Structures are given as C-alpha cells and as structure tokens.
Amino acid sequence: MSQFDSDRVSIVTPDERERREQMRERISVVFQEDTLYRLLEDKGWTDRIFEGELLSLKEGESYNTENTVEILDLKGQQDIRNVFRVLKHYVRPDESTGHHRFDYKAIVRLRMIFLLKKDYTLPSLEKVLTLTKPGGTVNQDTNEAVLQALEENGRKFDLVAQFIKQLAENLGTQNKMLELQSKDDVLKNKIDEQIQLIKEIAAARDPVLERNNDLTKWITRCRIESELTKEAIDLWSKKPAKERKIKTGLFQSSEDINKRDSFIQEYKSKHIEDRLRNEIMP
Question: Which of 63, 115, 137, 162 could form a disulfide with 67 if both were Cys (CB 3.0 to 4.6 A apart)?
C-alpha cells in the first residue's frame, strides 16, 4: 500500500473531519467567482465537487499525476492528458520540476471540468472561459442565453477543432503522400475524405465560422485546393504512360513523382485565384 493510500485509510478522526469542513469552505470561497464553479452552481451540482477523496487535499501540498487520478477516481492519466490538450491553461499545473504537480486548486479545476463534460465538450468549455471577464464573471451580453447556445452547439465547436486539426494534418502530409508513390485512387480517396470534412463544416453554419471571416476564407481555400488536387490527379492519370513513367531498370518503369508533383502544383496555381474569386468574391 502506498503512503498516499495509507493516509486515505487513516482519515477518520474528528480533527480530520473538521479540517475537511474547513477545506470545503476554503474551496467554496476561492472558487465562488470562477466561471466553471458558477456553471455548476446554476445546475445545483456544487456538492459533487467534494465527492470522493477531494477533501483529503491539503492546502500548501502538491500531488503527482498518479495521486490526482486516484483522488478524482479517473480511469487513468490519459483522462488528464486529454483535458490538457484544450484546457491546460485553465488547470494550471506546476511544471517547475519537469513533471506535472497539482495543488488543491488545480485538482478542483480538473474535478469541475470532468463534471461539466457530461453536458459540455472541452472546446465549448474553453469558449465559455474566453467569454468571461478577467475576474471570472460572465460579461453582461454573454448571460444565460449565450451559455445555453454554447451548450447546444458544444459538439459543433468540437467538430470545428477536430476538423481543423485533421485538415492541417492532411494538408501537411499531402506532398509526402505524393512522394511515397501512392496510387492515384488512394490519393483521390484521401482527398475525397478531406473535401467531405470541409463540406460538413460549411453545412453546419457553425457560429465560430460565421463570426470569423478569415477562418471561413481559409477553409474555402483548403476545399478548393483539395478539389484542384483531385482534378489534377485525374488529368495526370489520363496522360499516356510514356509521359507519366520513368525507366527504373532495363524492363521496369515507375511513376515520375517529380513530374507529377510539378503538374499538380502548376494546375493548382493556374486555377486557384479564379476559383477563389468565384466563391469568396462573387
């Protein structure tokens, strides 16, 4: 049994109960203006913050990731890593030692995030936090109606984040895919998936896109470039073999990757501006 487990088993004395009540009051005061605490308060869920072993935390002490997983009764450390991808700036772990350490405030923030994940996606929680004043209170024009809209559109915000991440990865690896001599049909399938993602976002009419014209233009450009790439691959595949192949041996030949790359880039460069003008500036 670890020292942490031993401490948890021995917490039964009246003094410890009193200390826990003081810790509960301390947390309630410290977080009373915190945006996520107020969301939980509106839902009547603040008591859930203190469930399990959370009140075993001590002010002035810090806990490693393994201890934090136990305190919050999580499945594993991956749960915390998933939160860090979006809300690490809110949790604010101590990284001065080269490892993550969590004081009671950081652990309470994690608990509130995991409670709210039942109704909110991580990107939507981040959006809620960005719509607050520095002191933690919600701006007057982002009251219940805005919070309700964020809750209803949480999955859309998540979809936008996932889309942009996947799209960036796809675009970043597109040239590598060409260099690896992928077959034309494999390339076209990958590009079809990419185009479909873009169309899903456009069809969603997400508030994020509607408020950000630059992002909308960027996504439109990505779609057009993907469509032009697919068109260029189609045209390339219809060229005679003698124009597409290069000899690699006495009786062997393979796709001339450099020539294909140049053909695709030239085709895109030739048509991209006209397509953009037609769609972005009709």
Answer: 63
